[in-house]
């Protein structure tokens, strides 16, 4: 995952040191240098520039499971999960070939959402019960709604205002009979899903962090819930049907437990904290299980090397079995799956700690054989649960998408440049939002075949066959201004005549059986949840998809109305000019959008987002230039829309041979951020040092008026001259 990332960070550090140009100010500020201050050795900085040759994710070592005919261009690009030097080559597994056409018939394939429904506040959670055919949604104001899944649609059932504060997490039991809810108001509330009634309320003595049902109807007769504290590293165990008093407290020496996930097939729990530590624990003791016999007796050791714990005479447990053994224990005693390792050091569970990141969400496949983790740096890790060895790693970071935009082999990841910049801006806010709000999101889900993983990404929702390592398609990529977060997948095969079909007999969909599948999604800062299906949407239906089942407030009405989803030509969406409104007047500029695409994109998005509003002209030099674009106002601040410096864009015909050219300020090659300047005289010595991305077409008098103001010794005007607003024009 990250061998190349560590190298890239080190090289970028050296690169920044090598990028000090002759025009850098002594105080580290950005800006062009006057002619007399220019150094004759302007090219020396570029010679010291380093290039990153190992920055791309590669897959030089295969694991033998990918299809030979798989499209190697499709992203995600696999990373070799665990490279061990000197390890003998393993015998390659038999190649698996899966007919995507069959399995994808029971997954949503329409790229646009079919319908959306409202809450009175931002929708933060969505749960799907395939067995009971219910969808449960929760919003930031403590409201929970139950919906029933009909063929081709959903129907509202019941509304609860259950919490006085924001909902932290919603979770279902493995049999989907019980739903639990935790809130910042220090309460746990439990629902019976079949009757959609709240039947238990427990007042907690601590602030909850997360929760999970840690029992299986196969192995335990009673409901048991584990709730972690946000104040100290403890997990509190409750049996809500028996008492509202905590029955067990488990103390940990590590950090606060952020995520708890139960694997019903192994009867084990996965724990994760914000340091990246991942643990596998027994649901009774909450300690590391003892190899292949972590619970129960008459179990067979795994194939391969003998399990030391299985050689201790555990089979003698059956000799004590009498007639009082519960029926559910006898019936399922041999069905529990066993781990195939005895020590945590045999696994890849330290991978997140190694690279100083942590898990945002964890999901377990229906058969319990795979576990997926989305890390804070947006890498998706898929483990084989029995061995806890890495099976796949997918890079979903913003850096990967930045690189992919210029890669002709990854056209399926390309999006409009202006839309890309907006998504980057939103992505920064989302990271802060998840960390500050302490909201648990389910951004990953597996399908019922255990072959596909569906997860929300920077550009949409990806459907990936992780067995053959193929990106099948991306859902919701065409929808503007929607960043999908929590997901819930509903899959059902029904008979074509609308009578119930035996799903076990209908493994494959044919003329007699049709799929009634749907993907339910929450979206960042939207008071709606969105539904994707297989139904094709006509252009006439696009404007009628958003159902107003709640009365929107006047302030939120605009945000409730989705933008029409139409593919607009790039020429119509690219800004070609701008008007800078200052305290001294207007400055009209034409943008060189065809040549300097990245620079114009950066300037345009900053302008439309109000980034430049109230920025002062902090550096004014008579007979040279006027400089602005720094929110700090001292020439040392400002950043690009990507959160890092970006490269120069030089062209012979775009130069400083005339006055009133608009250029990017920098502190060396490829160090552009947000600051820019306007020249007042020809400045040929700045050519190929500063990107020229525009020129003044009207308002030259305003530029000269700014140039003439009185300044201090640091060239800062004595009276502030501000940018009031920048209007972008097509």
From TrEMBL:
UniProt repeat feature WD, residue ranges: 116-147
GO biological process: protein folding
EC number: 5.2.1.8
Biased composition (Basic and acidic residues): 306-315
Enzyme class, UniProt record, top EC level: isomerase
Keyword check for Isomerase: yes
Annotated keywords: Isomerase, Repeat, Rotamase, WD repeat
Annotated stretches, region: Disordered: 1-100, 291-327
Claim: DNA-binding is one of the keywords in the record: no
Stretches of the chain forming a coiled coil according to its record: none
Segments of skewed composition (Basic residues): 81-97
Matching PANTHER family: PEPTIDYL-PROLYL CIS-TRANS ISOMERASE-RELATED (PTHR45625), PEPTIDYLPROLYL ISOMERASE DOMAIN AND WD REPEAT-CONTAINING PROTEIN 1 (PTHR45625:SF4)
Protein name from the UniProt record: peptidylprolyl isomerase
Species this chain originates from: Plasmodium coatneyi
């Amino acid at each position: 995952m990250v061998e190349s990332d560590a190298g890239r960070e080190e090289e970028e550090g050296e690169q920044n040191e090598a990028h000090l140009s002759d025009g850098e100010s002594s105080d580290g500020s950005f800006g062009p240098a006057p002619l007399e201050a220019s150094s004759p050795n302007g090219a020396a900085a570029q010679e010291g520039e380093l290039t990153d040759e190992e920055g791309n994710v590669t897959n030089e070592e295969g694991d033998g499971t990918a299809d030979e005919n798989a499209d190697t261009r499709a992203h995600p690009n696999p990373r070799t999960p665990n490279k061990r030097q000197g390890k003998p080559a393993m015998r390659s597994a038999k190649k698996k070939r899966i007919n995507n056409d069959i399995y994808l018939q029971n997954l949503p394939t329409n790229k646009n959402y079919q319908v959306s429904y409202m809450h009175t506040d931002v929708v933060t959670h969505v749960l799907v019960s395939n067995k009971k055919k219910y969808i449960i949604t929760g919003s930031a104001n403590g409201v929970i709604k139950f919906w029933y899944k009909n063929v081709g649609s959903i129907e509202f059932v019941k509304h609860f205002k259950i919490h006085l504060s924001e909902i932290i997490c919603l979770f279902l039991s493995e049999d989907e009979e019980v739903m639990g809810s935790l809130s910042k108001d220090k309460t746990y509330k439990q629902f019976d899903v079949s009757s959609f009634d709240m039947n238990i309320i427990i007042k907690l003595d601590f602030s909850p962090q997360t929760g999970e049902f840690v029992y299986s109807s196969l192995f335990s007769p009673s409901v048991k819930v584990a709730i972690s504290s946000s104040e100290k590293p403890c997990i509190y165990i409750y049996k809500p049907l028996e008492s509202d008093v905590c029955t067990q407290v488990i103390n940990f020496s590590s950090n606060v437990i952020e995520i708890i996930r139960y694997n019903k097939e192994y009867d084990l729990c996965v724990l994760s904290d914000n340091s990246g530590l991942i643990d596998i624990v027994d649901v009774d003791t909450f300690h590391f299980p003892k190899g292949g016999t972590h619970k129960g007796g008459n179990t067979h050791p795994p194939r391969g090397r003998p399990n030391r714990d299985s050689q201790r005479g555990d089979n003698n447990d059956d000799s004590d079995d009498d007639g009082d053994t519960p029926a559910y224990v006898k019936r399922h005693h041999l069905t529990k799956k066993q781990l195939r390792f005895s020590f945590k050091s045999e696994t890849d569970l330290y991978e997140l700690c190694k690279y100083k990141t942590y898990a945002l969400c964890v999901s377990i496949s229906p058969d319990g054989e795979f576990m997926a983790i989305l890390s804070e740096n947006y890498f998706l890790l898929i483990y084989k649960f029995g061995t806890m060895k890495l099976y796949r790693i997918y890079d979903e970071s913003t850096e990967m998408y930045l690189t992919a935009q210029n890669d002709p082999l990854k056209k399926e990841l390309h999006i409009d440049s202006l839309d890309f910049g907006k998504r980057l801006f939103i992505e920064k806010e989302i990271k802060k939002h998840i960390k500050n709000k302490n909201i648990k999101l389910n951004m990953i889900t597996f399908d019922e075949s255990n072959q596909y993983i569906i997860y929300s990404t920077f550009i949409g929702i990806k459907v990936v066959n992780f067995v053959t390592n193929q990106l099948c398609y991306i859902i919701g990529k065409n929808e503007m201004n929607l960043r999908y977060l929590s997901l819930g997948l509903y899959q059902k095969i029904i008979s074509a005549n609308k009578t119930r079909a035996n799903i076990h007999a209908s493994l494959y969909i044919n003329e007699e059986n049709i799929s009634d599948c749907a993907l339910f999604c929450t979206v960042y800062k939207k008071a709606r949840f969105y539904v994707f299906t297989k139904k094709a949407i006509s252009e006439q239906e696009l404007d009628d998809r958003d159902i107003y089942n709640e009365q929107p407030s006047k302030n939120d009405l605009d945000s409730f109305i989705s933008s029409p989803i139409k593919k607009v030509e790039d020429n119509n969406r690219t800004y070609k000019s701008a008007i800078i409104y200052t305290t001294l007047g207007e400055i009209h500029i034409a943008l060189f959008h065809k040549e300097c695409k990245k620079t114009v994109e950066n300037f345009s998005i900053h302008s439309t987002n109000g980034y430049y509003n109230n920025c002062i002209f902090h550096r004014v030099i008579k007979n040279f230039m006027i400089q602005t674009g720094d929110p700090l106002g001292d020439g040392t601040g400002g950043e690009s829309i990507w959160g890092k410096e970006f490269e120069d864009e030089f062209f012979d015909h775009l130069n400083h041979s005339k006055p009133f050219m608009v250029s990017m300020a920098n502190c060396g090659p490829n160090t552009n951020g947000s600051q820019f300047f306007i020249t007042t005289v020809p400045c040929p010595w700045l050519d190929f040092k500063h990107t020229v991305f525009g020129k003044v077409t009207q308002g030259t008098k305003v530029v000269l008026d700014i140039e003439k103001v009185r300044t201090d010794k640091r060239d800062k005007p004595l009276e502030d001259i501000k940018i009031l607003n920048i209007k972008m024009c097509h």
